[in-house]
Amino acid sequence: MEHTVINSSLSVPIQIIYNEKYKTDQKFHVHIYQAKAVSENDANKEYPATVGIASDATIIIVDDDHAGAFSFASEVFKVTENIGTFNLKVYRTRGARGNVNIPYKITEGTAKLKIDMEAATSGTLHFKDGVTSMDIPIKIINDDKYEKTKDFFVFLGVPIWQNSNQKDENEADGKPVLGAHVRAKIIVTEDHEFKQN
């Protein structure tokens, strides 16, 4: 790669070959070495040049034919009591192929159902083909009384195909799976703590 003084950055074009057959994530590396600076007008005239610290790059090819990995963005969420409805988002990453059902359940902690929150104790999210996120709506009850911080939990169950004839699509390795965060702790904080003086 030749780099002139006109450009502050250049790109290395790499063609990724699409394969319809499901594969696990694949990766390769790009290494920059032996930097050489040459005058644009005189090829024999060289300038000092070195390779920086970030001289290696790892490129990971994620197979988007996968049905996806389902997860919360984090293990802990903090909301104020006056938020109204809290929409807990479930993300679908590493692919979004096919129609998938993912069950969930809500359990009490120090926060109690019908006193501090309103929601079905269990339910199922129906992810259509190509959909990468959905919400679990949870109503937070504001009783206008000062209370200590309370919490409750939401758990994701094992995702399954919506239709039985999807099971053999792109081999068993392409089936929907759970991601990193399958339990979410929601902390409800008294809204008076957030009022500005």
From TrEMBL:
It comes from Panagrolaimus davidi. This is Calx-beta domain-containing protein. Keywords: Calcium, Ion transport, Repeat, Signal, Transport. Gene3D superfamilies: 2.60.40.2030. The lineage of its organism: Eukaryota, Metazoa, Ecdysozoa, Nematoda, Chromadorea. InterPro entries: CaCA, CalX-like_sf, Calx_beta. GO terms for biological process: calcium ion import across plasma membrane; cell communication. It holds the Pfam family Calx-beta. Signal peptide: none annotated. GO terms for molecular function: calcium:sodium antiporter activity. Residues 57-157 form the Calx-beta domain. GO terms for cellular component: axon; postsynapse; sarcolemma.
